[in-house]
Design a protein that fits this description.
The complex is a heterotrimer of chains A (366), B (344) and C (226). By secondary structure, chain B is mostly helical. Chain B has 14 helices and no strands. The radius of gyration of chain C is 32 Å and the shape is flat. In chain C, helix 4 (143-164) crosses helix 7 (191-203) and helix 7 packs antiparallel against helix 8 (205-225). Chain C has two domains: 41-126, Alpha-Beta Plaits (2-Layer Sandwich); 139-215, no CATH class. The chains are: A alpha+beta (366), B mainly alpha (344), C alpha+beta (226). Chains in contact: A-B, A-C, B-C. Chain A binds chain B through residues 7, 9, 15-17, 28, 30-31, 118-126, 128-129, 132, 188-189, 192, 194-195, 197-198, 346-349, 351, and chain B through 60, 63-66, 160-161, 163-164, 167-168, 230-231, 233, 237-240, 242, 307-316. The complex binds iron/sulfur cluster (SF4) (2 copies). Chain B: Keywords: Cell membrane, Membrane, NAD, Quinone, Translocase, Transmembrane, Transmembrane helix, Ubiquinone.
Chain lengths: 366, 344, 226
């Protein structure tokens, strides 16, 4: 027998398909993965510590820097957490605008997911088409807040600026074109036999494991658990909308891919309903200029972000600034299963696994 | 028309005659002619590559709703030249832990091997540099040597990514060489010759792609794999292996690899045209124009595939070769043999 | 059938090959900006009433200004206003806070510069012909500043004392007079060390004692070695 040895290679932190600063120390037996260790922290900016030296309002723009691919979702989570802390409720219209912006962010994030998965498995062109369509959402964000990627549009208590006139036709035409876009992705990617061969039956995450590891969001639903915080514990006005929770069966890469494509459709459904029901009126609740929550009060608020359960835990000491702020980052917790689902697979599966877990390292490292 | 058709052949004869008239022996004149031919090939190949790279970037850009290079010169045609100059003037970096000799020779070996392929290609009627009787065999055996260069690059770089890339390339080459040869064998059986000019002449009435559609498809797939082009670009696989065997290369050495890949691409496309699409045969235009035209069309198909499809997984790649391609090509060989036997 | 998906995909890319391209040829073709686009943050100095709301609301300390009073009306006027754009997050909080809409975002987005300082914008309103009053004593000098001055005075006095009579000055931080002498020997005329010790002696006696001890131990070690 020829003696062979394992080789250890570092996938990342500087590697084309690790989505930022993910570092996976991989032990390989040829092309097979024997073991894998994930090292994190390359994008650490101590956002939680920064929060302690900023006032409640001043911290808003930092939230988008957590999950910069779905800019409005973390901001919404934070603002709702502070509102819960203060015990204020929003005007109707503000709630509707929030839902629209949040769901648009979710679509943007999932579109980027499709694109980055495509490029990670070698279909470069898929990325460009997804970006082309995502660009229209970015344009809408620019219309509303003047910023495209990391827009600070939401404020505690609602919004300071209403939706502009040009927003409505833009979102309408986007929603009308969405089925064609999805058709295109499905024809180019989902139906492709090579892609199916690569994604089916790889990176399987069983429902039990997913729950045991605390996985949430589309990754959990792909494993067959129909759990969505928007339904399980509706926040804002999510209880008013009719939408389905897409679930997968096996929890393999293909399921994770398909679940996200179907979630785009569901998000579009929510936006359509919200646009229809949205009333006119105020967009900002009465919020004191200097926000000083009661001393000793604490709050945990969670929302369904595009990556999973995004939670904000805020403790107040009665001052202008939070005493402590903690973010439960879904990307961080979802990454925990990467070794589990990659072990025994191929090196090429690892790339697909990272892509389908859809981590945003800004959020995982905070 | 007649003059254009035999222009290069006449030119060659004129050179030989001229040299002989100047008192040179016939052998000496032939050797000088051979050297001129090689120089021409090298020149043509280089110019061709520049066009090819530009074309691929344009096509991929158009597919991706971009314009591709469009700044330098009309439609950006000078972009490749600018890139080449940039690569030439770059600092020559050799990582300290590499096996220096192997690291340095690998790109040279690669480009020499790919240039050697051109020796037997008949660019027009009677326009092969060396009209070998075993042309097809020569082409295949020299073509498969390219892997050695990749293996040298991977091993010499002393980098795990490069080594993985090299390993992949070897595995892939060994598996795909067999269906490639088998599918070409079917063509050779019909033509009854390994000489490329003979094969082209045998397609006077009908192109072999119509007689051997199965062989063509298997050959095309195997050729894509041999060329390391997407969706079979395992050795490079930039999303997985950063740049595979080329990870440690930069500047001119890297450019040589790049050059060699495109050289190979054109050679294999030309071979495809010769074996299945009637080579230099075609109406109206002189024969030496037909081969490049056909080769370019085939190359466009290669581009199109690469910019559409995701990369295949390594084990699927192997399974596909051993479990699908080889049985199919073998069966095709048997059927071809039987049919030929009964037709006789 | 196996392969139909691949063919469909090829069809899509083939279709797009001929389509109109969507990329923007940037320097020639200008991007379409929406009215709310947040480009460079600008100030209209005429509108500014020097209220300081913007500085207070900015999360990243981008903004700063200096002010003065008019001699006659005692009205505050702006003497300079600095926006250090390199730290700006374009969050709009300052614009929302400004009561007079003096701050606004322009549509200028091309601001590459060779030096970091060049990214800064400084507004210096034309105040010629106006008689200015530097802000009154005490209004500008905060208690903090005074404390700082006091500390400085104390430190200087201490340094002088150490130089003049080391044994007495230093015996406050060490246990015996001998040690004080030794310490002064070790310190020699190393200005920075003396200054450090003096600073500590004024502000934090305990820490000064610790540092003095450390110096002593270090000195002894050196002696033994040498
Ligand atoms: S936009 Fe935000 S970061 Fe920039 S100056 Fe205004 S408040 Fe400060
Ligand atoms: S908030 Fe407006 S008025 Fe007040 S100091 Fe700032 S720029 Fe001037």
């Amino acid at each position: 027998m020829l003696e062979t040895d394992f080789i250890t290679i570092n996938v990342g932190p500087q590697h084309p398909s690790t989505h930022g600063g993910l570092h996976a120390e991989t032990v390989l037996d040829g092309e097979h993965i024997v073991d894998l260790k994930v090292h994190l922290g390359y994008v650490h900016r101590s956002v939680e510590k920064i929060a302690e030296s900023r006032t409640y309002t001043q911290f808003i723009p930092y939230n988008s820097r957590l999950d910069y691919l779905a800019t409005h979702l973390p901001t919404m989570g934070y603002c709702q957490a502070v509102e819960k802390l203060l015990g204020i409720s929003l005007p109707e219209r503000a709630e509707y605008i929030r839902v629209i912006m949040a769901e648009l962010s979710r679509i943007a994030s999932h579109m980027l997911f499709i694109g980055s998965l495509a490029i990670d498995i070698g279909a470069t062109t898929g990325l460009i088409y997804c970006f082309r369509d995502r660009e229209r959402i970015m344009d809408m964000f620019e219309m509303t807040s003047g910023q495209r990627l990391i827009s600070s549009y939401m404020r505690i208590g609602g919004f300071n600026e209403d939706l502009p006139e040009e927003f409505y036709p833009a979102v309408k035409s986007f929603l009308d074109d969405l089925p064609y876009m999805l058709d295109e992705y499905n024809n180019l990617l989902t139906g492709n036999e090579i892609l199916q061969a690569r994604l089916k039956n790889t990176g399987i995450l069983s429902a039990e494991d997913a729950i045991a590891y605390g996985v949430s969001g589309p990754n959990l639903r792909a494993s067959g658990v129909a759990y969505d915080i928007r339904k399980a514990e509706p926040y804002g006005i999510y209880d008013r909308f009719a939408f389905d929770i897409p679930v997968g069966q096996k929890g393999d890469n293909m399921d994770r891919f398909v679940v996200r494509i179907r979630e785009i459709e569901e998000s579009a459904r929510i936006i359509r309903q919200a646009l229809k029901d949205m009333p006119e009126g105020e967009i900002k609740a009465k919020v004191p200029r200097v926000i000083k929550p009661e001393k000793g009060k604490e709050v945990y608020h969670r929302i369904e972000s595009s990556k999973g359960e995004l939670g904000f835990y805020i403790v107040s000491d009665g001052g202008e600034k939070p005493y402590r702020l903690h973010v439960r980052a879904p990307s961080f917790i979802n990454l925990g299963v990467l070794p589990l689902i990659s072990r025994g697979g191929k090196l090429q599966d690892l790339i697909a696994n990272i892509a389908t877990l859809d981590p945003v390292l800004g959020e995982a490292d905070r | 028309m007649k003059g254009a058709e035999t222009f290069f052949v006449d030119l060659a004869r004129a050179i030989v005659n001229g040299l002989e008239n100047m008192g040179m022996s016939a052998l000496g004149a032939e050797i000088i002619l051979l050297i001129i031919k090689f120089a021409c090939i090298a020149g043509i190949v280089t110019v061709n590559i520049i066009i090819l790279i530009w074309l691929e970037r344009k096509i991929s850009g158009f597919i991706q709703l971009r314009l591709g290079p469009n700044r330098l010169g009309p439609w950006g045609v000078f972009q490749t030249i600018a890139d080449a100059i940039k690569l030439l003037t770059k600092e020559d970096i050799i990582p300290s832990q590499t096996d220096k000799i192997i690291f340095r020779t690998a790109p040279i070996v690669f480009i020499i091997i790919s240039l050697m392929l051109y020796v037997v290609l008949p660019f027009g009627d009677g326009m092969a540099i060396v009209d070998l009787n075993l042309g097809v065999l020569y082409f295949i055996s020299v073509g498969s040597l390219g892997t050695i260069a990749l293996l040298m690059a991977g091993w010499g770089s002393n980098n795990k990514w490069s080594l993985l890339g090299a390993m992949r390339s070897v595995a892939q080459m060994i598996s795909y060489e067999i269906p490639l040869v088998f599918s070409l064998l079917a063509v050779v059986m019909i033509a009854g010759s390994l000489n490329m000019s003979d094969i082209v002449n045998a397609q006077d009435k009908i192109w072999f792609v119509f007689l051997q559609p199965v062989a063509f498809i298997t050959y095309f797939i195997a050729a894509t794999a041999e060329l390391n082009r997407g969706p079979f670009d395992m050795p490079e696989a930039e999303q997985e292996l950063t740049a595979g065997a080329y990870t440690e290369y930069s500047g001119m050495r890297w450019a040589l690899f790049f050059l060699a890949e495109y050289t190979n691409l054109f050679a294999v496309s030309a071979l495809t045209a010769i074996m299945f699409f009637g080579g230099f045969k075609g109406p109206f235009l002189p024969s030496w124009l037909w081969l490049p035209i056909k080769a370019y069309i085939i190359m466009l198909v290669f581009f199109w595939l690469k910019w559409t499809l995701p990369r295949i997984r390594m084990d699927h790649l192997m399974a596909f070769s051993w479990k699908v391609l080889i049985p199919v090509t073998l069966a095709n060989l048997v059927v071809t043999g039987c049919v030929l036997h009964f037709l006789k | 059938m196996w392969g139909s998906g691949i063919l469909k995909g090829l069809g899509i890319t083939f279709k797009h090959l001929w389509e109109r391209k969507i990329t923007e040829q940037y320097p020639e073709e200008r991007p379409k900006l929406y009215p709310r686009f947040r480009g460079r943050l600008m100030l209209n100095p005429e509108k500014c009433i020097v209220c300081g709301m913007c500085v207070k609301s900015c999360p990243n300390n981008v903004l700063s200004f200096t002010e003065a009073r008019l001699k006659e009306s005692k009205k505050k006027v702006l003497t300079s206003y600095t926006i250090d754009h390199q730290y700006c997050m374009f969050c709009n909080l300052c614009v929302e806070a400004c009561p007079t809409n003096g701050l606004y975002f322009s549509h200028d987005f091309e601001w590459a510069a060779f030096k970091r300082e060049d990214i800064k914008t400084v507004y210096e309103p034309d105040l010629t012909g106006l008689e200015l009053l530097a802000l009154e004593e005490g209004e500008k000098k905060s208690a903090e500043k005074e404390a700082e001055d006091k500390l400085l005075k104390g430190v200087n006095a201490m340094i002088a004392a150490i130089k003049k009579n080391p044994a007495r000055a230093l015996s406050k931080v060490v246990e015996s007079e001998e040690e004080a002498l030794k310490l002064s020997e070790i310190l020699g005329d190393d200005e920075s060390k003396i200054k450090k010790l003096a600073e500590l002696m004024v502000s934090d006696k305990e820490k000064a004692a610790k540092v003095a001890k450390a110096f002593l131990i270090k000195g002894q070690k050196k002696e033994q070695e040498g």
